[in-house]
Amino acid sequence: MRPSNERVYWKTSEETLPRPELEALQLARLKQTAARVYERVPLYRQKFEQAKVKPNDILSLADLRRLPFTTGADLRESYPTGMLAVPLDETLRLHTSSGTTGKPKALFFSAKDVDNAAELIARSFVATGMNRGDIFQNMMTYGLFTGALVAHYGAEKIGCLVIPAGPGNSERQLLLMQDFRSTSIHLTPSFALYFADVLEKRGINPRKDLSLKRAFVGAEPYTEETRRKIEQGLGVRVFNSYGLSEMNGPGVAFECQAQNGMHLWEDYFLMEIINPETGEVLPVGEPGELVLTTLLREAMPILRYRTRDITAIREEPCSCGRTHRRIERITGRADDMLIVRGVNIYPQQIERVLMSIPKLGRNYLIQLDGLDEMTVKVELSEAGFDGELEHVVALQKEIASLLKAEILTTPRIDLVPPGTLPISEGKAKRVIDNRKL
Ligand code: ADP
Ligand code: ZN
Prior knowledge:
Low-confidence stretches: none
Radius of gyration: 22 Å
Strand order of the largest sheet: 4-3-5-6-7-8-9-14-13
Oligomer: single chain
Bound molecules: adenosine-5'-diphosphate, zinc ion
C-alpha cells in the first residue's frame, strides 16, 4: 500500500525547472562563484591572472571554458586550509577524501553547505521512490569519508528512520535488517556482492525473508552485470549513486526510477566533458573526463574540477520529468587504466565479463606480475559447480576466450573456492600491480 504522503519530487520546482530558467540560474551562480574565489582564494586569483581572465568576463555559460581547471593536486597542495573562501570559524564540518589515490584532500563545509548537501541527497533518494516511512540502513563508512554522513542527513530530512549501521559485521547488519524491516540500504558494490554471498550461505531468501526494496550503490565503479548480480542476490532494485568528496560526496548525480543514466543536479553543479589528454571540451554525448564546477558552495567553491571519472552527458529528456541532464554510468577513472602488453585495459571490462558468467561467484582480483603477466583470480559460485578437473579446465578456457575478445590479451585464470578472496567493506582493491616497469 502506498503511504498517503508519498512524494514524486523532493522540490518540484527545482527539479523540473524549464531549461532556459535553469541555465539563467546557472549563469548567475557561476558569476557569483567566480567573483567569490577571485576575491578570497589566492590560488584562484593566481590562476585567473595566468589565464588572463576576470570574473566580469563571464557573460554566458560558454565563458566557463575561459576559466582555469582545478586538479586533485591543487587540493592536496593547498591542504589543509589553502582553498577556504570563508574564515575557519564559519565552517561547520570537515571531510577528507578517502585517499584512494594519493594524499588526502581537506574539504570544508559551511552551515549552508551542510544543508545543501543534505538537500541534494534528499532529492536523489526521493527520485528513487524512497519516502517518509522508509527505513534506511546506511552501510557506508562513517567518519571522515563523506559517503555515510551526507546520506544520513539527507535521509533524516525526508523523515526516514535512519539506522547508522556503517559497513561490515554482516551478522549484525542482517539482524538490524530483519528486526527493523529496513527497506533501503546504501553501500558499495563490493560490499553488496559480499553481503549477497552471506545471505546465500545463510539460506536467506531476501524477497521472502527481508523487507528490502532498494539499494543505493556507489563510491566505486561497477558494471550493469554487477548491478544485476546485486539485484538478484539482495532482492532489491539497485540505484546508481555518484559523488565525490570534492563535490560534497554522494548526491552529485543519481538514478531516478527510469534508471537510464544519473541526473546530475545542474542547479548546484556545472558539468563538462573533456578529452583527458588535451583538456579540450567535447561535444555533448561523447565520452571523456567529467569536469565539475560548484555553483552554491560557500566554504570551498571549486571551479572546473578534473574528476578523472570517465562518462558522457545525455541530454534527451527523461520520462520522470526532471529537467537536469544525465550522465552515463562511470566506466572508470582515467587513472585506473592499465596498460598490459601495450593494450589499454579498464578493470571494468574484466568485471563485465566475469559477472556475466553464472558459474562464477561475486569476488575477483586482477594481479599483474613480472613483465606484463596478468592473472585473473575469480571465485566460483556457491551453487552450480562440481569442481571436476575436466570442468575446471573447460571453464578456464571459456573465461580466457571471453576475456581475450574484450581486452585483446589472454590472462591466466585462477579459479578459487567461494569466500577465499579478500573482502572489503569500503572501496575494493581489485588490482594488484606487482610489475617492475
Ligand atoms: P577518493 O576515492 O578519491 O578518495 P571519494 O571517496 O570522494 O574519493 O570517491 C569519489 C570517487 O569514487 C569518484 O571520483 C569516482 O571515481 C568514484 N565513484 C563514486 N561513485 C561512483 C559510481 N556510482 N560509479 C563509479 N564510480 C564512482
Ligand atoms: Zn529521470
